[in-house]
């Protein structure tokens, strides 16, 4: 095999992998998982706000 054949096979493999990932990402059976993952940044906002308030209260009690 010469170099150009290996490059061609590498290109075909990369294209097949890309198409596989696109099909997997846009398949309907993964929609629920992706919807849940999309909401993760908003899941702990209340906990974060509460812990910030607790830190402020703790600092003010030390003074």
From TrEMBL:
Instruction: Keyword check for Cell membrane, yes or no.
Output: no
List, as start-end ranges, the regions of compositional bias called Basic and acidic residues. 51-63
Keywords for the protein's UniProt record, in alphabetical order:
Membrane, Transmembrane, Transmembrane helix
Which ranges of the sequence are coiled-coil? Answer: none
**InterPro entries in the cross-refs:** Cbb3-typ_cyt_oxidase_comp
Taxonomically, the superkingdom here is Bacteria
State a single Pfam family of this protein. FixQ
Which residues does the annotated region (Disordered) include? 40-63
List membrane-spanning regions: 6-26
Does the keyword section mention Transmembrane helix?
yes
**Protein name per the record:** Cytochrome c oxidase cbb3-type subunit 4
Q: Origin organism of this chain?
A: Halopseudomonas aestusnigri
Q: What is the lineage of its organism?
A: Bacteria, Pseudomonadati, Pseudomonadota, Gammaproteobacteria, Pseudomonadales
């Amino acid at each position: 095999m010469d170099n150009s054949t290996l490059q061609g096979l590498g290109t075909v493999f990369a294209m097949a992998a890309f198409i596989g990932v696109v099909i997997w990402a846009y398949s309907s059976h993964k929609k629920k998982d992706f919807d849940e993952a999309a909401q993760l940044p908003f899941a702990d906002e209340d906990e974060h706000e509460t812990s910030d308030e607790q830190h402020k209260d703790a600092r003010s009690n030390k003074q």
